[in-house]
Design goal:
Blueprint: H1 2-25, E1 29-33, E2 40-44, E3 50-53, E4 62-64, E5 71-78, H2 85-92, E6 100-103, E7 107-114, E8 117-126, E9 129-137, H3 141-150, H4 154-165
Antiparallel strand pairs: 1-2, 3-4, 4-5, 5-9, 6-7, 7-8, 8-9
């Protein structure tokens, strides 16, 4: 009986996941890489369709939605002091009203609300740089999750490209 119950739970879980997977795939995801540092991330090109130019600091790009309601910045910020994610975040002096905060030895994530939008910042420690995605959006939780989970440094991206070039299955996708 227990075995049948677990199978039913697994089957229902898989069926419930199908719409979420289909929705995520419909955004036209494309890998974007920062040329100077190799930081890279999957971007929903059908949502973030306008190039908004260079960010205020560090290397690379800002993107906007067609209606301008949301923006996304991919950047590599110099980390000359080789600060840990916790120390780097402290130096940035984030606002006190952060709703979500997670800090590990490898990355930090902070998020909260500003006016009618959610802001979400994730930075991965990459030695001389902090590779970051900064997103201000109305409500894209599934999209933001994928963007956040695909932020990678050059070495991980190079290994993935080598694996794909050799014809091996992509280890990062099911």
């Amino acid at each position: 009986m227990r075995k049948i119950g677990m199978r039913k739970i697994l089957m229902v879980s898989c069926l419930l996941a199908i719409p979420a997977v289909a929705a995520a795939q419909s955004f036209g995801w494309q890998k974007y890489a920062v040329p100077e540092t190799g930081a890279n991330v999957d971007l929903p090109i059908t949502i973030c369709s306008k190039d908004a130019g260079q960010p205020e600091s560090g290397y690379d790009r800002r993107f906007l939605t067609a209606d301008g309601r949301a923006n996304l910045t991919v950047q590599s910020v110099p980390n000359k002091a080789n600060d840990s994610p916790a120390a780097f975040l402290a130096k940035m002096r984030p606002p006190s009203d952060i709703v979500y905060r997670r800090v590990t030895p490898n990355f930090f994530v902070v998020s909260s609300f500003r006016k009618d939008k959610i802001w979400y910042d994730r930075c991965n420690f990459a030695g001389r740089f902090m590779n970051c995605v900064l997103i201000n959006y109305p409500a894209w939780d599934g999209v933001v999750t994928r963007i956040s989970n695909t932020l990678a440094s050059r070495s991980l991206w190079r290994n993935q490209m080598r694996t794909e070039a050799r014809g091996y299955p992509d280890p990062f996708h099911c």
